[in-house]
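Task: sequence design from structure.
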């Protein structure tokens, strides 16, 4: 038995790039930064803060959710699987790309309440709803693309 599962919580590095195909399917790509705090070892050695960048790929309804609600700086929870693919660049050199294929994307609030004029930090009531309601949620909760509120698994 094997398992390929990734869970990330981080900040979106730039506005997502969303592409639509003739079939009507959509794909969204964006970068996500996760940070590890720096610390000091018992012997006095300082370990600096480290930022890791992840390439996130969202398909179909998740891509439409990302296009509509996810912006640079958004803090999101991403659950998915890691995928590595290769391609030949213009010079004919084989390149490898590691991506996270998102199965679930949720907003992760940091406790700050939205102020007047802020963009909504919540998600639509359902992916098929033409005019989603955007309820006000208490701080510290997770907001999902399917309007489910789950506790984080840790």
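Answer:
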């Amino acid at each position: 038995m094997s398992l390929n599962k990734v869970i990330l919580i981080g900040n979106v590095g730039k506005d997502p790039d969303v592409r639509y195909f003739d079939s009507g399917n959509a794909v969204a790509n964006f970068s996500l930064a996760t940070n590890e705090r720096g610390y000091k070892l018992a012997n006095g050695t300082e370990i600096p803060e480290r930022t890791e960048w992840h390439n996130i790929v969202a398909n179909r309804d998740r891509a439409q959710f990302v296009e509509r609600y996810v912006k640079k700086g958004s803090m999101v929870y991403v659950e998915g699987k890691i995928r590595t693919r290769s391609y030949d660049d213009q010079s004919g050199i084989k390149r490898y790309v590691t991506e996270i294929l998102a199965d679930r994307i949720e907003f992760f609030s940091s406790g700050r309440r939205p102020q007047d004029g802020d963009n909504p930090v919540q998600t639509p009531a359902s992916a098929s709803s033409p005019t989603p309601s955007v309820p006000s949620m208490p701080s510290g909760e997770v907001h999902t693309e399917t309007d489910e509120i789950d506790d984080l698994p840790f």
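The CA atoms of residues 56 and 100 lie 5 Å apart.
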